[in-house]
Structures are given as C-alpha cells and as structure tokens.
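Appendix B, example 12.
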Amino acid sequence: MGTNSGYRPTSTIARERLTRLEHPALLYGTVEEFLSCLVPFVSGGIDNGEPVFVAVGADHLAALRDEVGEGAAGVTWADTREWHPDPATRLRAFHELVRDELAGGATRLRLVGEPVWPADAPELVLEWKRYESVLNAVLGPFPVSLVCTYDTSRLDPSITADARRTHPRVREGAERVSPQFEAPEQLLGQWVAELPPPPADAAAFQGSVDLHAAREFLNGEALAAGLKPARARDLCLAATEVLTNALVHGGGGAGLRAWPLEGTFFCQIDDAGRGLTDPLAGYLPPSPAVDSGRGLWLARQLVDLLQIVPAPGGTTVRLRMAR
C-alpha cells in the first residue's frame, strides 16, 4: 500500500499550530460581530493561562472588557490610538512583547491589534498596510495568535480588501483561508510609495557628504522649520544611519535635500548604487548575531515615516517628521 506524502495526522497539525503564528483578520460591521469573535478568544486565553494583550479603539475596548468581566484581571488592555500609534514603533513593540513573554515562561500568546488608519493621509495608510503584511515575517517564528480587527462600517473598502492580502485567514462570519493572501516579500515589492518630487526651493547640502557636516546642515534646517530640538536630533540620527548606508552601498556618494511643507519637515537622501533588493529592509528586528540591518531598523523607529523607493538608477529614502 502506497503512502500519501501530503497527509498529516490531526495531532501533528495541532502541534504545528501551537508553535507558529496564527494571524487572521476579523472583518466586522457591528459591535456584536466584534464581541462574538473576541470574547471567546480572550476568555480562551485566560482559561489556558496564556498572556493576552488587546489594543483596539476605546469604545470597543470598553465593550470587550465589560463582556469578559471579572476574569479579565490578567489581560493587558490598551487604546490603539495611544499604544505605539505609528507602524514602525508598534512593530517593534509587538516583537518585544512576544519576546519578553516567551522569555518569562509563556508558551503561547494571544494578541488583538487594530491599526490606526489615518484620514486623508494615503502615504500613512500604505505604511499601515505594509505593517500588516510585515507582521507575518516578524512574528512568523513565534507561538502567537494575533487577531487584527477591521471595522467595515467605517473603513474605506480598499483597506478591508487589502486585509485579505495581508492575512492568511479572514473571519467574516466564519473563519476561512484567504485565497488573496500574498507573502510579505511579494506584497511589499508591489506596494512601493510614489513620491512627489521635492519642491524647487528645497535646501540642498552642497559638496561631498561628510556625516558631521550633513548633520549640522539638517539640524539647522529642521530647527528653522519649527521642529523641537529633540525631534530634530532624532531626525538627524535617522538620516545619519541612512546616509551611512548610502555611502557604503550606494556607490560612495549621496544627495541630501530638506524642506518644510504644511506642518511637516522632510528629508530626502538619494544614491546611485545598485538599489535595495530586499523589500523587508529595515522592517525585521536585527539579530544579535548579524551586524547588518540595524541602521535602517533604527531609522524607522526615530521618524514618523521612512519611505524607500528603489529604482534602476539607485535608491531614494524619504524621512518625515511632523512639527
């Protein structure tokens, strides 16, 4: 009798599910649908002795806490608009949370997260979509169940449609595999920002790029544009990391421009190197055993938004900080 190489006993599948990421999207239109999924999810974690962390909107957060009741003493609750409301810092926070809980003896975690979808800021909406995709790579090796929530009654249909591309499974009534799911390496390569050109009067750093002189130039421009000193320092540190990367990998030269626009300060670094080939550059937490990758990771943490646009003639990196 032949063997079926595709067969895996139910117990084997169950064991695999306990040791890897489960990352479904919950698409709901009413608070009742929200609660019908998340009350048993949170309660099940409490019953199993698993750490539970929930970051959703304040109104739904209160409703969920009320339904879970007294047994929720061991659950950590957060308002999604207050707990790391930027994609890069939230990605780091989730990674650190998982790492610390597992180091403390947890065998599996249950997480709930709602992205902070901004109004009238398509570049930030795109970054949150990229974040949702990157979670599959950052948390993929860990025993975590992470439910990402999408309120279809208020979100743009394009956001909920892309949830099917960033999550392996989708719950919309019943939970099922998402046939539209794409791996982050593929999806981020498609979701590249289209950057408007810098204004004609943008300040440009003159001469060969010396890191100290470049920082002095950028700090002066940022302060003159109204950034607070601490914000200007963070921007300069992030730009230094990007410039260093450009000088090492970008053919030895880089262009630096800066300008304010509508309450935001921008910095752009262009190089003429071979370009970044890894769409996950700067998103994956650096490994202690590997020296490379730390600069872009750090830069993403320090600014409000870092966008990388590869091109055949080099790479453009744009950083932005709100005043």
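Confidence is low (pLDDT under 50) at residues 1-16. Residues 266 and 320 are 5 Å apart (CA to CA).
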